[in-house]
Amino acid sequence: MPSPRTKLSAPPRLPKNGMRITPLGGLGEVGRNMTVFEHAGKLMIVDCGVLFPEEHQPGIDVILPDFTSIRDRLQDIECIVLTHGHEDHIGGVPYLLKERADIPLIGSELTLAFLTAKLKEHRITPKTVQVEAGQKHRAGVFDLEFVAVNHSIPDSLAVAIRTKAGTVLCTGDFKMDQFPLDGRITDLRAFARLGEEGVDLFLTDSTNAEVPGFTMSERDLTPAIDRVFATSPRRIIVSSFASHVHRIQQVLDAAHAAGRKVAFVGRSMVRNMKIASDLDYLDIPKGLVVDFRKIQSMPDHKVTLICTGSQGEPMAALARMANGDHQIQVGEGDTVLMASSLIPGNENAIYGIINKLTDLGANIVHKGNAKVHVSGHASAGELVYCYNIVKPKNVMPVHGESKHLHANAELARKTGVPEKNVVIAQDGVTVDLIAGQAKISGKVEAGLVYVDGQTIGAATEDTLAERRLLSGGGVVTVVALIDPKTHKPVEPVEFLTKGFVHDKKTFQGAAAQVEKALVQTRTDGIDDIAKIEEIVVETVSTHLRRTYRREPAVMAVVIDA
Ligand SMILES: [Zn+2]
Fold this sequence. Notes:
The chain is α/β, with parallel strands linked by helices. 29% of the residues lie in helices and 22% in strands. It has helices spanning 87-90, 93-97, 109-121, 188-197, 222-231, 245-257, 267-278, 292-295, 317-322, 347-359, 380-390, 402-414, 461-473, 506-523, 529-548; strands at 19-25, 34-39, 42-46, 62-64, 77-81, 105-107, 128-130, 136-139, 142-148, 157-163, 166-170, 201-205, 236-239, 261-265, 303-307, 335-338, 363-365, 394-398, 429-434, 437-443, 449-452, 455-456, 475-482, 494-498, 553-560.
C-alpha cells in the first residue's frame, strides 16, 4: 500500500460504490480540522477549523485549510457537519461560506449557537440544521446519525455516515469522562450498536493517543479549585478558554460557595457565557454574576474575574493585565488561576505571562503546581476501549501531529485491526473505501492558507521568510543618486536603517564598494535601473555579511540625476 511518504499524484476516478475521504487539515498538526467525504458525485464535510500561528509565522491571524480541491465543486457539497464548537473545528466556516453562502450547517444546539454568533461578526446569516444526539438526518446520498460524546465543551457529537460504500464513524474530539458535570457521557452503547451493525471505517481522535491510561474526570478538579477559593486573601482572576462551559461552571459554583461575586472579562468570554446561560448549558446562581464596572468597587476578597487569554494570546485580557495595560491592576495578594491546558507552541508566551504576574506580586495556580486542568481528549486506555467495542474493519487516525497518529494506529493494531487496514494519512492524502477496504489513493493540494488582516492566502511562505529576515537583522535601505553618463554618485550614498544596529564606521566601507559597483555597471553597459539596484543590494549584503557577519534585509533605490 502506498504510504503518504511515497510521492503521490492526483487520485483516480472514484468508483460509483466507493467513498473517498480527504482530510484537508488536522492530520500532522493540532488544529484546522476538516475532512471531506465524497460518494456518488456528492460531497459532505465534517468540521472546518482554523489553526493558530506559531512564533515562526509572524503577523498571521489564523491559518485555514486549503479549499483548492473543492473550489470547483462547491455546488456538490450537501452539508457541513460541525462536531463541536471549538475554533479548530468551526473557525474556518466563515471563510468557506464566503465561497458559497448557502451550504447547510449541521450541528448541536450549542455548537450552532457559538458558530452563528461568530458568523454574525462576519455578517453571514447561515442556513442551519440543528440536531441532537441519537438523531438521524439524511443529507442527499449521505445518511447521518449523531452520537453523544464527551469533550471539553458541552454538546459534542460523533457522526456516523452511511452510504452504499459502507458505514464510517467519526468520533470528532472526544473523551470518556464517566462523571461529567452535565451527566452526558460518551454513548458507548451507540458505538457498540454501530459496531454490531458493522463499522467499515473508524476515524478516531489521536490527540492523547500517546498518554497511557485514562483521562481524569472534570469533577476531580473540584478540590483544587475549592482550595483556591478557600485560601486566597484578595481577588481571584481565572483564565480559561471562552468555550469551556463546564470548567467555568465549576469556578462559578466555587465562587458562589465562597460568597464571592463574578464578572466576565473579554468580548468572547462575555458573549459565549451569555449564549451558554441563555441555552441552559451554564447555571448561574441568581445575583452571582455582576457587571465588570460594578465589581471594581467591591472589596477585593469578594471579587472573582473570569477572563480569556489562557494561551498567552497577546491581545487577550490576561496578557494585558500582566503587561499593566488593563483596567485591572494585578497586585500583591491577588491569585491568578490558569484553569487550562498548555497548547504546544504557546509555552513561551504563557511562561512569560506567569513570570510577569508573579513579579506583580500575584500567586499563580496552574496545571504545573495544582490539579486545575484535565484534558478534553481520550487517552490510550479509552481509545483501546473504543476499538474493542466498535470492532472496526478499517481505522484512520485523525486530529493530531504525526507522532499522535502513529501512536493511535499502534493502539488499533494492538486490538487486532489488521496492519493493512490501518491507514495513516496526512493532510491532502485521499483515502478510498472500496468494497470494505480503505486504501490511500492519491493526494490533492492541502497547503497552509494564511489569513493576514483582510487578505486570505496572499501571505505566502516567502512572505513569512521575509518577515523572519526583517525580525532577525532589520532593514538597510541604500539610496544613490547617480550621473546617467558615468553612473558615479553625484552625492554621497545614503544608508537608512530600521532595526539594524550600526556606528559611524559601518557604512564607510560599504559606500566605497557601492561607488565601485556603480561605476562598473557603466563599464559593463548595464543601464536598467532595476538591474543596477539589484547589484547594489548584492554588494551591500556581501559587504555586511563578510565584514560584520550581519544579514539585514537590504533594499536599494537608485535615481538617475
Ligand atoms: Zn475540541
